[in-house]
Amino acid sequence: MKLSSRHLLGLEGVPKKDIDLILDTSVSFREVLDRPIKKVPPLRGKTVVNLFYEPSTRTRISFDLAEKRLSADSISFSASTSSVKKGESLKDTVRNIEAMKIDMVVVRHKSPGAPYYLTQCLEANIINAGDGPHEHPTQGLLDIFTMRQKYGKIKGLRVLLVGDIKHSRVARSNIWGLKTLGASVAICGPTTLLPYEAEKMGVDVYTHIDEALEGVDVVNILRIQLERQQAGLFPSQREYTNLFGISKERLHRLNKNYTIMHPGPMNRGVEISNDVADSPQSVILDQVTNGQAVRMSVLYLLSGVDDREATSE
Ligand code: CP
Question: Is the whole model's pTM more than 0.85, yes or no?
């Protein structure tokens, strides 16, 4: 089985069969992560470059480990310690890197569309690791994988995304992927942090958290960025916490077998209380573990090396 595209730029418009293939393949790679030797050979001889023009902890380490566990040669590039500092353009940087015979590029960039732009300049497979507020497809996929792991299905689940939806690439990728798989999706946040005409994305829109939480299976809590407060989009962190923060007292409105998610990095005590973040219903660290399996699956499937047994040692 093959994906419909050579690249993963976002989840908007990705067919259900491709998402299902990535998730099904991730199950085998998730099993590899529980072995004493967490390494398989399918990307032996392939070279992957991780281009990070923005800070990252989880995504960068997760891709780096995923590549190593698939036996690829991988190299990480950080804009802050490269010739970008001397004024080199994105196009020149990547064309020089490609001249070193690379096969795949993982890119995080502040500009929406930067990964698409690279598909026009390079022959390599391109994977979007977050492009400004546009999309973060592997985060969306790992969130969906984590939900599927717990509930065994996505169709029919009620999923609520809370927080700064407007500036969130994680929210957009979750919405597109979940809608394609048949979930019922809702968003909630201050009006100033909701996208214009959000209903057109096929989601239910709330500005009161207690209403939004009613009958929900999964709450995915997004980080509130201090710079949004400085830009005047909400008055204070304390007010945000009072009106939208997810605390134990609010959780009785959820369905019985509910799940708490957060893509990280978390602001404990702002968008999520400590007791919720560390509760038995929280799968926040499972998301991180599953992220490696999902990224292994994406790298493997995009590489086109499906003639080899992916998970045999
Ligand atoms: N979830 C996520 O993208 O985290 P990082 O910014 O640390 O990669």
Answer: yes
